[in-house]
Amino acid sequence: MAGRQARKSIPQRASGPALWASVGARVRDRERKRDAVIMTAARAFRERGYHNTSLDDIASELNVTKPTVYHYVENKEQLLFECFRAGLALIMNGIEAQQESTATGRERLAAVIARYAEAITSDFGWCMVQAENQDLSPTMSRKVKALKSEIDQGLRSLIRAGVADGSIRPCDEKMTAFALAGALNWIAHWYRSDDQLAASEIAQRFIELFELGLQPR
Amino acid sequence: MAGRQARKSIPQRASGPALWASVGARVRDRERKRDAVIMTAARAFRERGYHNTSLDDIASELNVTKPTVYHYVENKEQLLFECFRAGLALIMNGIEAQQESTATGRERLAAVIARYAEAITSDFGWCMVQAENQDLSPTMSRKVKALKSEIDQGLRSLIRAGVADGSIRPCDEKMTAFALAGALNWIAHWYRSDDQLAASEIAQRFIELFELGLQPR
DNA sequence: CTCTAAATATACTCGTCGGTAAATTAGGAT
DNA sequence: ATCCTAATTTACCGACGAGTATATTTAGAG
């Protein structure tokens, strides 16, 4: 009894870390599972589309039942949102990675395009491209718009930088960013993971096209 | 009996034209209404998305009930397909219009881009871009694929022609067509009909970008 | 004036699916 | 051993929406 008591009060210090370690493990576990749910959803959405995928489908692909899915995620909408966010994060990383580069604007833009293509061919790519405001509540829709806008602004500022340092011909930065993003986003519509063409090759061709243009030099 | 028989056989000549005129009128009427159904559907799909639009919605926008809609169209899927086809037809027209032109490949391509942008900003544009195989039966999906492929081939052959006549720098025609179509299709995602920018202006900027490229000359 | 066929409406079926309430199990802490 | 909490399941609800069976109206044909 006394021994137990002692173990109970003193150990608070000693077992504190152990406790936290184990709680931490549990949290990590939960996060890993949550990620699995999101990734499975992304894959399913990409294969069959958002509306043609039921939560029962996703659950059964995880060998689990629907309420389990709800244990990790608020609702279907949030699932889509998370997929979306994951996709956008990949692209944002690509843009941020070029933030402190000393290369010319055009070179940095090319690097961003390569990462963009990589991201768009992932399972999250489809979600990112297809996540339409129409399927999201006003709140989520606003968040999505904000994230998309960040990407857009990132592209535009790279273009501006390129124009400023002379590596890019003066142009309408807005339309240029739209055309670029459009060509890249559209990859999600035609790309199949078993495609012969790797994302990096696609990116290379796109960079060449956008840099040199169609007209012979 | 005999009289009726006679009236039935002889009048075929006299009332034939009248009959056909009126039947013709009825057919035209039916077609006009059917078109109205399809256009209303296209607008609704564009505004709220395919899955978020019920046939009751479409019917009530036409001040009519659901079975009436079914009187003009097989089912929801076909409605989407018709919208899709209407959109693609606009683009195909643009391509065919350049078939017999004597201009250079690059000039003809530019003309096609302009028409393409026009089409994509229409109500049918959205449907064309969003009509995913996922929402269509295998049969319809095949048809859609075939139509899309026609557009793709049209673009590619224009590019080839341009390369052949020296107006376009030798390039990967497949990737170039994909990039072009992507940039154009993506317009449907961001364009709002109340946009300041007219389709023709967008097209102009795109043409300039794709022709000259980003790199200064 | 009647007959017929097309056009439209009423009122329903039925499956699907998002979401949940209430039990049950597992595993770690004491 | 016991207790507590997180994880998971079973069994359900309610809504929505595609599609239809069946009347009813309308209008042209004879």
Automatic annotation (TrEMBL), chains A, B:
Sorted UniProt keywords: DNA-binding, Repressor, Transcription, Transcription regulation
PROSITE patterns registered for this protein in UniProt: HTH_TETR_1, HTH_TETR_2
Entry keyword tRNA processing: no
Superkingdom per UniProt: Bacteria
Residue span(s) of domain HTH tetR-type: 31-91
Matches recorded under PANTHER family: HTH-TYPE TRANSCRIPTIONAL REGULATOR RUTR, HTH-TYPE TRANSCRIPTIONAL REPRESSOR KSTR2
A Pfam family hit: TetR_C_24
Name of the featured protein: TetR family transcriptional regulator
Heme keyword on record: no
Ranges of the DNA-binding region feature: 54-73
Stretch forming the signal peptide: none
Species whose genome carries this gene: Steroidobacter gossypii
Lineage: Bacteria, Pseudomonadati, Pseudomonadota, Gammaproteobacteria, Steroidobacterales
